[in-house]
Amino acid sequence: MKIQIIGGSGTGKSTLGKYISEKEKIKWIDTDNYLWKDNSFTENFSVEERKKMYQKDMEIHKEYVASGSIFSWCPDGFRNRDLLVFLFLDEKVRMDRLQKREIERKSQFSQMNTGENTNDFLEWCKTYLTATEKEITGTYAEHAYQMELSKSSVLKLDASLSLEELHVEILNFYS
């Protein structure tokens, strides 16, 4: 089992990846760990360091579930996967999840004229569906391009389903 899960921020990629990892007893690779040096999400690893970590994971783990994308800095990453899962979610639900997560992380906010609390990350997340250039990391355009190029099967799943339901849909692929 070699699965990669992609989708917009807040669709539940990490939550589903961790769940599958626990149920199937396989390695969970959270691609955020390649990018960020710590949970403050402020300092990145260099591309060279990311590639070394990725290569080590691929050498060590014969089976895995990876949550997230490395396409922008390693376009050939996870090419050995069996399945590419794309999670989609109603945009209002997704943004509500992200707002709640930012509050839980005690992120800094500024207030817009509308009274809405926001920050750079949330403003970037709002462009997920509207950005049209596939080179823009973490956008639907980039994810659609990844699905188009994928040599593995692609499974599109509604992230509003329960973890158990999503897991069953993925297991059905392997049946």
Automatic annotation (TrEMBL):
Domain of life according to the entry: Bacteria
Report the InterPro entries cross-referenced here: Cytidylate_Kinase-2, P-loop_NTPase
Q: Which Pfam families match?
A: AAA_18
Listed PANTHER family: DNA TOPOLOGY MODULATION PROTEIN FLAR-RELATED PROTEIN (PTHR37816:SF2), YALI0E33011P (PTHR37816)
UniProt name for this protein: Shikimate kinase
